[in-house]
Amino acid sequence: MHLKSLELLQFKNHEKTRLQFSLEINCFVGLNGSGKTNVLDGIHYLSLTKSSVQSSDSLNVQHEKVFFAIKGEFELAEVKQLEVRCTVELGKKKQIYQNGKALAKTSEHVGLIPLVLIAPDDTELIKGGSDGRRKFFDGLISQLDPAYLDQLIRYHHFLKQRNALLKKFAETGRQDLMLLDNYDSELIKLSLVLASRRNELLAEMAPLLQSHYSEISQGQEPVTVIYETEALRKDFQEYFKSLRKKDLITKNSNAGIHKDDFGFLIGGHPIRKIGSQGQQKSYIIALKLAQFNIFEKEKGEKPILLLDDIFDKLDDLRIAQLMRLISQRTFGQIFLTDARPERSKKILSELDSEVIFFSIVEGTTKTEE
Length: 369
Known about the structure:
This protein is α/β, with parallel strands linked by helices. The protein folds into 2 domains: 1-114 and 301-369, Rossmann fold (3-Layer(aba) Sandwich); 121-299, Glutathione S-transferase Yfyf (Class Pi), Chain A, domain 2 (Up-down Bundle), CATH 1.20.1050.90. The chain contains 12 helices and 15 strands. A 6-stranded antiparallel β-sheet has the order 2-1-4-5-6-7, covered by helices on one side. The protein has a 6-stranded mixed β-sheet with strand order 8-12-13-3-14-15, sandwiched between helices. Strand 10 (261-266) and strand 11 (269-270) form a beta hairpin. Helix 4 crosses helix 5 (177-217) and helix 5 crosses helix 9 (277-299). The mean pLDDT is 93.
């Protein structure tokens, strides 16, 4: 699987950009703020139907414009030729097209083009709150399992409705406990299904995480990720219902998979507390490479790999280990960015791979010889 070409129209600082790509390595160079990451974000849209940077689609529309469009031509093992187009017009619903056909739901597209992104702020998975970790693992599973994504959307729909009902009870002083029971039943059932799938993923990921961590960091510390949930308790249904009094007081649902977390451990201890900066970087890269392995196994082809400012965030040892994996054809098509052209050219010239360099200046891109 690979991306043959990309077109960006009024997307962030790209007025009109058209690019043809190498099947192996594509490197975007330019000053910070020139638009390198925006190209990667355009590719991210074509895979996951959303930005990796902005939470709102409208923020990606170029200043003083009313819409943006992204188009990519792919070659996939099963579909052969696939054209994907994403359009966002201010005040209207986002639309995804496959070979010219509009999809009823954007979720229908997720998982068709597997993608792994390694970005500068990835260590926030370690340092940040549980919401970011849940989103990461939910996004990973959703690319593998469309049913999981549908169930997750359904879960959050019922959660939103239940919380609104709890607020209404508090405002009116009147309670419809039968309706609340109906929401409880759905949330309990979906929590069990979704938690089981999350747990299965962690079991598959753990040995891959350890293997990549040892390889990248040349360290011997045991690392793992654990799933922290109440949903797999044998008495989860009773536990959920036992919190109803608290739910009514707080006007919020206090049990369910939206309360889950994932513990990142090194030597049996939280890596955010005892891990060095180098250990944390190695852990995150190992986690993303484990994601890559799982996608490749499940999909039968290598996912697209995006490396954003990877050289600027790693020391020489970790860069060398990552380049060794690339030289061994461990990955498929790669897109990376670097603010220092001389550095990336030196590193990539040592690889036996086809490399195309794209120079970007204020959203204008040209291919370098």
